[in-house]
Amino acid sequence: MPLSTQDNGLRFSAYTYNQNLVWKGNLETISFEQQAIKNKLLLLDKPCYIVKIAGKIGVTNEGYLSPAENSTTSQLELIASLAPISLQQLGDPSFLSCYGVKYAYMTGAMAGGIASEELVIALGKEKILGSFGAGGLPPERIEAAIQKIQQALPNGPYAFNLIHSPNDMAIERRAVDLYLKYGVKVVEASAFLDLTPNIVYYRVAGLSLNAANQIEIKNKVIAKISRREVASKFMQPAPAKLVKELVEQKLITELQARLAEQVPMADDITVEADSGGHTDNRPLICLLPSLIALRDEIQAQYHYLQPIRVGAAGGIATPESALAAFMMGAAYVVTGSVNQACVESGACEHTKKLLAQAEMADVTMAPAGDMFEMGVKVQVLKRGTMFPMRAQKLYELYRTYNSIEEIPTAEREKLEKQVFRKTIAEAWEGTAAYLSQKNPEKLGKAVNNPKLKMAVIFKWYLGLSSRWSTAGEKGREVDYQIWCGPAMGSFNDWVRGSYLAEPQNRTVVDVADQIMKGAAFSYRIQNLKIQGLQIPDYYTQYRPEVCQ
Description:
- Residues 401-480 form the [Acyl-carrier-protein] S-malonyltransferase-like inserted helical domain.
- It is globular, with a radius of gyration of 27 Å.
- The model has no long low-confidence stretch (mean pLDDT 93).
- It folds into 3 domains: 11-84 and 516-539, no CATH class; 89-347, TIM Barrel, CATH 3.20.20; 363-483, no CATH class.
- It has an 8-stranded parallel beta barrel with strand order 7-8-9-10-13-14-16-17, surrounded by 5 helices.
- Helices cover 42% and strands 15% of the residues.
- Strand 7, helix 3 (117-125) and strand 8 form a beta-alpha-beta unit.
- The protein starts with 10 loop residues before the first strand and ends in an 8-residue tail after the last helix.
- The chain is built from 21 helices and 20 strands.
């Protein structure tokens, strides 16, 4: 057969060569040109054979492998081979069967409805799990979201977020009551510092025995965690003390209490590394192996019939990052920040444009509105907004002074003019009106506690800043609080020059498909490299292309 004289760049490390197998097939199917080789590497559902003929390396998807015969001599040599790979092979297959999904991939909840009904429904229709961002939303808004999502996805898959609210446990309880009322079967628990009666109630209330006398877990929990000590609590059965209290309150039965001793608090632990919003900025490469090892220790102790799966989140934005997580043992991957710039996101158009322009260094830590007094911080976008600087100033004032009145007059005037854009008295009036409806007990405490009063006034700004970002509040763009991790910048680097560069072209399903397909392709490339094939960068880079 005629061979091209053009160098395609492929080389081979001969010391790894194995002659146990030979390739047999039609020589006409072997490609030697660069583009043709790249196209064959991209055919993931077909095997891939790397052969050498007359000193030239080529690639084919056709033919078959056969044991080498000692008496046979041929000019054609088999250098490397790959089996077909499907996207379903990445991660733990039990994740797919448990949630009825096609990929070991899900999208995490982004509070305030940024992970919107539209986002969850779009994913669910394609059998991809998405978690609705219920954090910070009033009960009536969560209830409306449940009804809308259940109507569109009567058989799932979907999840709802349950965010820990240490300063107002009633918020947690109202969400749990709604989830139990409507039969929400999957909850993503996030920002928990410890187990609470509410998450235990949700979990244990879904336990029962089936006809075969086996435990059925109807209320599944995916716990998003970044600390080993917290992960340990979700990996073990519910605390006996909390379970006993639920029995005494007649919220669960004696049978459910006994069953709770035999199952962990969570079906899945999402290891949350350096992510947007609440984060400990942990590196995934350190955190994931640690929590997988912890899971193995606890499994050896309790012998659960279904071992807890451990997934990865925080920094998952490209095929390479997803594959890295899978190769480290992640049962599934979770994307977050990258979905905010998608069409279905609840963020406003201005926010989506800022996110689509973000680079990895364009994020910083700022005081969290929900845990302000505790000094907890969230990771946010700093490019195009002054929120991080202004929020930090509020926290410094809170730490320094015991009341609004103690703050120097010049500083108070700056707050009123630059941050609040109204008098402190007016800000307090609005805060008091809100608390009188939502949390009268806290209002009563704030009236008699100057330090707490200052905190709730400052939290008025912190709370509204995230809502301004989702609602697209005109004139407040520089105050938008946009939760974002470095993954956003990594994603933007990857899609630059492709159809996904513009936010109006980004759909959550496309993003999921491209990341997973790219991860499978990257696995194929790395596998060939391990077999000794030296591959130029031209062949190794996966770029998003519009699906035909």
